[in-house]
Specification:
Elements: H1 9-22, H2 26-44, H3 46-54, E1 59-64, E2 71-77, E3 80-83, H4 89-118, E4 124-133, E5 136-140, E6 145-148, E7 164-175, E8 178-184, H5 188-198, H6 200-204, E9 207-215, E10 219-226, H7 233-238, H8 243-251, E11 256-261, H9 266-273, E12 281-285, E13 290-295, H10 300-304, H11 309-318, E14 321-326, E15 331-334, H12 349-357, H13 363-371, H14 381-398
Helix pairs in contact: 1-4, 2-3, 2-4, 5-8, 9-11
Length: 407
């Protein structure tokens, strides 16, 4: 009679209860337990394992009674099956089974959480900073944990343990940790969701956000339109004494927000998008989606903005390539597709990559590096000279002209 290891029947009952509660297939768990017990046996008895591997006619099998939990290891060879369960192996089998069940429960719970958050992709939630993993920030977002990589973090924003922040559920990605919930603070959609939260008219659809352009942590431009008569779209978003937009600004760590009324007329729309600059002469090429904007010298720095930010966001918001032309013939072309501020200098791919590798993507960083004559890996004397010319030309373009009063 085959020797059997009698696991506690309570454990088998507990297995069924856990499987029912967690929605796990008992057969899958039992098959996993069998594989784990067999692996443990082969580790403790390598001679039997090697013999089975060398002779294909030898088959080692784990049998588990799903009702009682009784477990046995058998060897089948030449049509004969014998019980080879070692004495005292029951404790190892029970321990292995427990570990497998707990692992399956954890996996099932994680799968359930991932499934829940799969339906919440594209929504905002409030998360609490749980811990840091290198440069990554891990948020407690309820049942799950949100993973925020550096590229989804607002530049210059510092995170503290237990800090509560609004985050946008961006995606679920396969990583080394398995399926991971990715959250973001940089996506423009976070700003949209914040306005939905703070502005009832936006949430109800009475005010529609038509377009948004954002450079996270610095500035955002949004265009809005009313879908109901009598509703002021800009005023609704600003709120009485600016209280509504200020709530959004506070949540985004004092990021500047420009709210612009959308217009079907591209001349009006581009003019509004380039605010605070005024007295603009705008010529539109609808076929090419290009706008040539002639700007008075005293408005040039306002139209372009610090580091070209104002015109860059205006181009992103309107979808037009914008050429800024001054009375002195100075020009700047912006498509709105620029990834970094330095992209406006029309650099070679080699020089651009060298600057990015050095962590120089904003003009103030580039100005500082040039003023300090700092060496930048990958940029030789000739490239540096050409870069200096491009930087100086851009400086002149964005420098507000000095006015002298007559005496």
């Amino acid at each position: 009679m085959a020797q059997m290891m009698q696991a506690r029947t309570e454990f088998a009952a507990a297995l069924m209860q856990i499987c029912n509660e967690r929605g796990i297939d008992p057969e899958v768990v039992i098959d996993t337990i069998k594989a784990a017990i067999l692996a443990a046996y082969k580790k403790d008895f390598p001679e039997e394992a090697q013999a089975a591997e060398a002779d294909e006619s030898i088959e080692l099998t784990v049998k588990i009674d799903p009702d009682t939990g009784a477990t046995a290891i058998t060897k089948t060879h030449a049509g004969k099956t014998v019980d080879i369960t070692p004495p005292g192996f029951g404790r190892i089998a029970a321990q292995t089974a427990k570990q497998v069940i707990l692992q399956r429960v954890r996996e099932a719970e994680k799968d359930a959480i991932i499934s829940e958050y799969q339906d919440r992709i594209g929504t905002m939630t409030t998360g609490m900073v749980l811990r840091f993993d290198g440069k990554n920030v891990i948020f407690d977002i309820g049942r799950g944990q949100g993973f925020m990589p550096p590229e989804e973090q607002i530049r210059g924003e510092f995170y503290k343990m237990n800090q509560r922040l609004a985050v946008y559920i961006l995606d679920i990605r396969e990583t080394m940790r398995g399926k991971t919930i990715i959250v973001s603070r940089t996506t423009p959609q976070l700003v949209v969701e914040l306005f939905k939260r703070e502005v009832p008219e936006v949430n109800s659809g009475a005010v529609e956000i038509k377009a948004i352009a954002r450079e996270a942590g610095v500035r955002t431009k949004i265009s809005v339109i009313s879908t109901q008569s009598g509703v002021d779209p800009v005023g609704s978003c600003v709120g009485q004494k600016g209280v509504r937009v200020q709530e959004v600004i506070n949540e985004l760590n004092n990021e500047k927000i420009d709210i612009i009324q959308y217009a079907d007329n591209p001349v009006s729309f581009i003019g509004a998008a380039l605010a605070p600059a005024e007295k603009l002469d705008i010529d539109i090429d609808l076929k090419q989606k290009m706008a040539t904007v002639t700007v008075p010298d005293d408005q040039m720095s306002l139209a372009i903005g610090r580091g070209g930010q104002n015109v860059r966001l205006a181009a992103k918001l309107t979808g037009f390539k914008i050429d800024i032309v001054g009375s002195a013939g100075k020009t700047l072309s912006v498509t709105g597709q620029e990834e970094y501020e330095i992209d406006q200098l029309e650099l070679s791919a080699k020089v651009r990559q060298a600057l990015i590798d050095a962590g120089i993507v904003h003009f103030y960083e580039l100005y500082k590096a040039m003023d300090e004559a700092r060496d930048i890996a990958g940029i030789g004397p000739r490239s540096r000279k050409n870069l200096a010319k491009a930087v100086e030309a851009f400086r002149q373009l964005t420098t507000k002209p000095q006015t002298v009063e007559a005496t």
